[in-house]
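for the recovery benchmark. tokens below, seq after
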């Protein structure tokens, strides 16, 4: 039987963790569907076995090589689709059971696109701070799709779109994300958009989760899946998230990015770095290695870098579970030290640590920069390991720049040191600093010493200049005193001259008076 709707699930490096997403499709109230799980490159990590565990409506397709975005899988899915309509679901997102039924109801009214309300969740532990809701608008409003972004997991469209819409675009040739470009192309082709007016999607945005592809996990999805399984709990969850978004003003607040903000291909590169795709294969750890706080965007796990005259650091937050890549490999477990800067106004600490999803024992103690988190764990081969630090609740502090808004911050990362057992055994008297950390700290101290010497030279020069200034002032005071004395002498001379002139004038006056008083000739 020909399906009414074809569901395209683009996937890459998701493996077994895709199962909750596929179960949410299987739980739809509409059953006349096919599911095309399309791997961006050869399937791996148990993906084929996971898809095979579902019924005959689920098929696995695979591109021969990776295309670096959802565009390649979505295009193959559209080509293979047999349904009258095409819907999309991200490989880590979930649908509520009535999602497709509501979308198809809107499409049956003659619209080209139907969009459902979508809860857009930030990282775990920061959902209240970071929840958005999209897809709720007045159906038929032509300006809405030109302004507002809707994740593909929330929409479906007729299979035969106008030719002007075209295929999902190549991300390397764009300034915009591919889903934004696809929606704007549909809007420019005068496609009509409808909203179901109901929330039926929960999106766990990988673009907000640092290293999400390097350490795929279905823990968040399983937690929400359990809530969605019970109708009463499902309604309560949706109402709670929607109320939170309304209170924060984040309903229909997600708009398309402006293309002039980015260079061609810039968004693609940034997303690959954020998700961990661009991190190279791990290097062999020889003895001791160090990596600093970094410069790249790390989603909502870490704020941007900050610095002073001595250190460079970056605060975790708003997520209370920030991740870090460990780009080394070693056949035996290694010592990991996370060096943190302390701030009395931020009493946040690390309460749990995990490496590649497995809890590991850790210790928080004093360190050369304030605090150090010490642990010992194995590193995997083939791809960089992921260290997750679960912190106590972040606190709200002023932004890192003048006039910046307040933000949630946790711990301030200086750097990570990784050491082999042999390297660690070489410094038993100071287990908090290995050779790599000593080199970094030594370079800092050397830089401080050079700065101190430079300041001392500058101070000596200023002191010498001040002494010369004082001498010059003293000389000026002598000149001024001599000039004052000259002025006094001149003033006395002027006074004497004025008195003499007054005396002469008086004598002239008297002579004139005497002459006038003398009798004239008889």
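predicted aa per position
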């Amino acid at each position: 039987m020909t399906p009414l709707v074809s569901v395209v699930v683009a996937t890459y490096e998701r493996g077994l963790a895709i199962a909750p997403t596929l179960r949410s499709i299987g739980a739809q109230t509409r059953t006349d569907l096919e599911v095309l799980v399309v791997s961006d490159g050869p399937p791996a990590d148990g993906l084929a076995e996971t898809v095979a565990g579902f019924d005959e409506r689920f098929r696995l397709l695979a591109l021969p090589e990776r295309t670096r975005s959802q565009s390649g899988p979505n295009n193959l899915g559209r080509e293979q689709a047999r349904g009258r309509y095409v819907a999309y679901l991200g490989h880590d997102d979930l649908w509520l059971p009535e999602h497709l039924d509501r979308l198809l109801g809107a499409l049956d009214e003659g619209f080209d696109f139907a969009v459902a309300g979508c809860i857009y969740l930030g990282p775990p532990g920061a959902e209240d701070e970071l929840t958005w809701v999209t897809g709720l608008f007045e159906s038929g409003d032509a300006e809405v799709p030109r302004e507002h972004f809707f994740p593909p997991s929330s929409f479906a469209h007729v299979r035969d779109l106008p030719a002007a819409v075209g295929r999902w675009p190549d991300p390397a040739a764009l300034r915009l994300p591919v889903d934004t470009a696809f929606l704007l192309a549909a809007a420019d082709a005068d496609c009509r958009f409808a909203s179901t007016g109901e929330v039926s999607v929960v999106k766990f945005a990988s673009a907000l989760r640092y290293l999400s592809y390097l350490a795929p996990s279905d823990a968040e999805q399983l937690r929400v899946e359990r809530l969605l399984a019970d109708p009463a709990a499902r309604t309560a969850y949706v109402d709670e998230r929607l109320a939170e978004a309304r209170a924060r003003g984040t309903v229909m607040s997600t708009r398309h990015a402006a293309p002039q903000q980015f260079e061609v291909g810039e968004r693609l590169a940034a997303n690959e770095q954020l998700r961990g795709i661009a991190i190279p294969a791990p290097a062999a750890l020889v003895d001791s290695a160090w990596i600093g706080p970094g410069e790249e965007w790390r989603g909502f796990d870490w704020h941007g870098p900050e610095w002073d005259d001595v250190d460079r650091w970056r605060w975790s937050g708003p997520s209370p579970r920030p991740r870090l890549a460990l780009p080394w490999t070693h056949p035996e477990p290694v010592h990991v030290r996370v060096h943190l800067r302390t701030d009395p106004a931020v009493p946040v600490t690390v309460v749990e640590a995990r490496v590649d999803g497995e809890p590991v024992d850790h210790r928080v103690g004093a360190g050369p920069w304030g605090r150090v988190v010490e642990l010992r764990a194995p590193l995997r081969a083939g791809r960089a390991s992921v260290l997750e630090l679960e912190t106590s609740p972040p606190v709200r502090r002023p932004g890192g720049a003048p006039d910046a808004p307040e933000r949630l911050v946790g711990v301030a990362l200086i750097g990570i040191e990784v050491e082999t057992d042999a390297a660690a055994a070489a410094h038993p008297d100071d287990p908090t600093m290995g050779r790599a950390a000593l080199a970094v700290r030594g370079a800092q101290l050397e830089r401080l010493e050079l700065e101190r010497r430079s300041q001392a030279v500058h101070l000596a020069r200023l002191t010498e200049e001040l002494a010369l200034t004082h001498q010059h002032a003293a000389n000026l005071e002598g000149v001024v005193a001599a000039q004052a004395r000259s002025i006094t002498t001149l003033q006395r001379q002027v006074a004497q001259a004025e008195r003499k002139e007054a005396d002469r004038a008086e004598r002239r006056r008297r002579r004139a008076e005497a002459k006038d008083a003398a009798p004239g000739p008889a």
